[in-house]
C-alpha cells in the first residue's frame, strides 16, 4: 500500500474481530514504530499497557462499568439505555483479542512556576500521546490488524489507576482494541469539506477591517 492508502483506509473498527490470536511480537513491533511519533520536547510521555491477563481485564471493565452506570444514572438515562451501553462496552473490551491501555506519564512533563504554563504543558503531553497512538493505528494495517481508539479510561481514571496499580504519575487516556477483522471493508464515515477546515488568515484579517 502507498502511504496515502494507509492514511485513508485506516478505520475505527468497532465490530467483532476474528477469534485468531494476535502474536505478542506483532503488537510489540507496532508499538516500537509508534515511538517515532513527534512529542513536545521529545518527552515521549506515552505508556502502552497491554491487558494480557483476562482476570485483570475483567476486573477493570467491571469497575469501569460500575462508574459508567453511576454517571448515566446521574444523567437521568433509562435502565434500558444504561444496560445497552454497559453490554456494548463489556463486549467491545472483553472480546477484543488485544486490549491496550494508553497513559501519559506526567513525570516527564516540564514543570513551571505558574499554573498556566503547567496546564499548557499538560496539553502538550496529551497531544504527544495522541500523535503516537495515531502512528500505531496506521501501522497496525501493515499486518492486516484492525483497531479502535476508545476514550473510556479517561472517564474512569481512578478505577484504572487503582485496579492496575499504576504509578501515580500515569494519566489514563485511552483504550485501543486490536485484532484481525471479521469484515475487511468498512464504509468510511463522512469527512467534512476541506473548505470548512482550511482557513487562510489573510481572509480573517480582511474581514476584521
Ligand atoms: C480521541 C479519540 C477518542 C475516541 N473515542 C471513541 C470512543 O470512546 N468510542 C468510539 O466508539 N470511538 C471512539 N473514537 C473513534 C472515532 O469514533 C472515529 O475515529 C471517528 O468516528 C472517525 O472514524 P474513522 O476513525 O473510521 O475514520 C475516538 C477517536 C479519537 C481520535
CATH homologous superfamily designation: NADH Oxidase
Q: Tally the helices: what do you get?
A: 8
Task: Pick out the low-confidence regions.
Answer: none
> In sequence order, what are the helices and strands, one letter per element?
HHEHHEHEHEHH
Question: Roughly how much helix do the residues carry, as a percent range?
Answer: 40-55%
Structural overview:
- The protein has 209 residues and is an alpha+beta fold.
- The chain has one domain (3-208): NADH Oxidase (3-Layer(aba) Sandwich).
- Helices cover 49% and strands 13% of the residues.
- The chain is built from 8 helices and 4 strands.
- It has helices spanning 3-9, 24-34, 54-74, 79-95, 115-140, 157-164, 194-197, 201-208; strands at residues 46-50, 98-105, 146-150, 170-179.
- A 4-stranded antiparallel β-sheet has the order 1-2-4-3, sandwiched between helices.
- Helix 3 (54-74) packs antiparallel against helix 6.
- The chain is globular, with a radius of gyration of 19 Å.
- The mean pLDDT is 97.
- Residues 11-12, 14, 148-152, 189 line the site of flavin mononucleotide (FMN).
